Amino acid sequence: xxxxxxxxxxxxxxxxxxxxxxxxxxxxxxxxxxxxxxxxxxxxxxxxxxxxxxxxxxxxxxxxxxxxxxxxxxxxxxxxxxxxxxxxxxxxxxxxxxxxxxxxxxxxxxxxxxxxxxxxxxxxxxxxxxxxxxxxxxxxxxxxxxxxxxxxxxxxxxxxxxxxxxxxxxxxxxxxxxxxxxxxxxxxxxxxxxxxxxxxxxxxxxxxxxxxxxxxxxxxxxxxxxxxxxxxxxxxxxxxxxxxxxxxxxxxxxxxxxxxxxxxxxxxxxxxxxxxxxxxxxxxxxxxxxxxxxxxxxxxxxxxxxxxxxxxxxxxxxxxxxxxxx
Length: 326
Ligand SMILES: CC(=O)OC[C@H](N)C(=O)O
Hints:
It is a single chain. The protein contains eleven helices and 14 strands. The chain is an alpha/beta fold. The protein is 44% helix and 10% strand. The chain is globular. A five-stranded parallel beta sheet has the order 1-4-7-10-13. The chain has two domains: 47-199, serine acetyltransferase, domain 1 (Orthogonal Bundle), CATH 1.10.3130.10; 219-246 and 254-306, Hexapeptide repeat proteins (UDP N-Acetylglucosamine Acyltransferase, domain 1). The longest helix has 30 residues, at 80-109. Bound molecules: O-acetylserine. The site of O-acetylserine has 8 residues, from loops.
């Protein structure tokens, strides 16, 4: 049986017509706002890089870097050469096209004179694909470091299949090659994608040595000018960041070293924040959890936050309605 309210609703004529009459005016208002000085639009320009394509490239590169782990079809000795050749040849053009789009965008948009975006796009894509064997080698050191440092990891394969840390580091290592080649947009699209799926934010401009491990990873931030040596391990919630940034910091500090340097064999535990471009954490140091550091520490230093004083008493829950926290 229909309720009265439902009956009324069903017999009511559609209200959309009256409201739809407003669409031309709404459209005009949006167009006028696009013409306002200082408004952001992207009209009449060369094709822009596609975020969706770049994300698919990331996943395709992950399959090439760790063959067999992320493919639906199994790889074996008879099809390996064919499958790798096939994906390199397909990916090569897609990658080059995306690089060309992003270079062209900057040429047109910012009047940067250029006559060879297309050539440069193919050259950079070639460099990236040539770097894959090296990427595979360095990522193997990262997987080994994660396994060696984590009793919860039951195998190297488990790390490759499932650890957000290794995914974020793999994407960082790819993006860093493009960043060093001064490809606009794509490195950040890649690293912010990894950030969005792992909670780990590694700027592609950071410099990170081999055997880098991020355990758990959620909330890790590694700033653009951070330098990290070899065999460094960090945990969730670690920030390697800049000191306070004034409102005009964007223009004043762009390109300057703002983030710390972490030397070889350092461990930084969860929730720690280390800030400043001149801050150096000396080799083999261990920085405990929840430390706030804005100054350098010499090699072989242990830095710990003294635990706040806790008091322990019998629980107030027994026989009481409210808790007594005084
Ligand atoms: C990580 C960090 O400090 O970020 C702050 C700012 N984006 C910068 O790069 O300086």
